[in-house]
Specification:
With 77 residues, this protein is mainly beta. The radius of gyration is 16 Å and the shape is elongated. Helices cover 0% and strands 29% of the residues. The chain has a single domain, classed as Carboxypeptidase-like, regulatory domain (Immunoglobulin-like, Sandwich), CATH 2.60.40. The chain has a 4-stranded antiparallel sheet with strand order 2-1-3-4, with no helix packed on it. A hairpin with a 5-residue loop joins strand 1 and strand 2.
């Protein structure tokens, strides 16, 4: 899925998935973070992640559709 936002809460680190649904976030310092995965029209996923020095982590997510509730829209032409 293209265009999914993946970022670590309260940091500047993040990425957006490419046309094949892949993403890469590099050079994250050691520590515990809250990873947030979001895309309009889908439920937000929040996941605690532990990052260790010199370790590569692979994470896959399944996004669940969430209807968007909007106020009335009037279109005139």
């Amino acid at each position: 899925m293209v265009g999914v936002n993946i970022f670590f809460s309260k940091t500047k680190w993040g990425a957006t998935t490419d046309s094949q649904g892949f993403y890469s976030i590099r050079n994250i310092p050691y520590g515990k973070y809250e990873m947030i995965i979001s895309m309009i029209g889908y439920e937000v996923i929040k996941q605690d992640v532990f990052v260790f020095e010199n370790e590569r982590i692979s994470m896959n997510f399944i996004l669940v559709p969430e209807p968007i509730q909007m106020k009335e829209v009037i279109v005139k032409s």
